[in-house]
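User: Predict the complex.
Assistant: Input components as received:
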Amino acid sequence: MGPPHCVSGAGALLAVQGLSVSFGGIRALDGVGLHIHASELLALIGPNGSGKTTLFNCISGVYRANQGEIRLDGRLLTGLRPDEITAFGIARTFQNIRLVHTLTVIENILLGRHRRLEGSWPLAFLGFLGREVEHRRKAEEIIEFLGLEAVRKARAGEIPFGVQRKVELARALALEPRLLLLDEPAAGLTTEEKQELVYYLREIRGRLGPALLLVEHDLALAAAACDRMMALNSGRVLAEGTAKEVQNHPEVRRAYVG
Ligand SMILES: Nc1ncnc2c1ncn2[C@@H]1O[C@H](COP(=O)(O)OP(=O)(O)O)[C@@H](O)[C@H]1O
Ligand SMILES: [Mg+2]
């Protein structure tokens, strides 16, 4: 495990190498490499269509890469199913919130929890009740952590958008991930909610400990939250380094202006 600002990929929690994906004639990812150390936050920026969500879909097993490798703690994930990857400790949120609107907040969080324990055979023997108690305890912890007590029993479809984003985050946290992938979690939030999100990103790392890969359009927010930044354009890595280095990189500036 390297120090937070370590640029070398040695001992990384997540290591991606030479990842390429094509859709018909479109090369959505073209030889992408990246690494994230334990407890580190890497911000991923890039214009629309640069391949950020595709990268998330590859890491979480939704898309299969044509080429390249994805490893978590040295273990090869490429080719595994999404539920297998989840079981290895990778959770994600979606650019478009995916809550079950007719279920309550706590039920949505419990859905995340159940997904985690599926196929986990030692726990499968503990019996329904024991698992349920454990799930509820964890869900309540996360509700308290994110300050969602007031909406715990509200239906997800009936709470404000900014709170739905928080529940989406809560559901991913319920997996107790080692790596959390956040796809534009600040999209549609007010300035105040964005500040709160930066606070929670810090708290998540400090108190719960997962590494984070954050896709974010708001560059100020990404810069405030991250240890390192990486910029993608047309499926390729344009720049990687500190937030300042990446934002001042001539090719990154050109990609954003163009
Ligand atoms: N399932 C898919 N089928 C066809 N093309 C796709 C699919 N997913 C992504 N793409 C294409 O891949 C490119 C990268 O998209 P995406 O990863 O969503 O970009 P970003 O998240 O950076 O905005 C785009 O050209 C997009 O149209
Ligand atoms: Mg996207």
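Residues 23, 26, 28, 46, 48-54 surround adenosine-5'-diphosphate (ligand 1) (CB under 6 Å).
Let me know if you want any component modeled separately.
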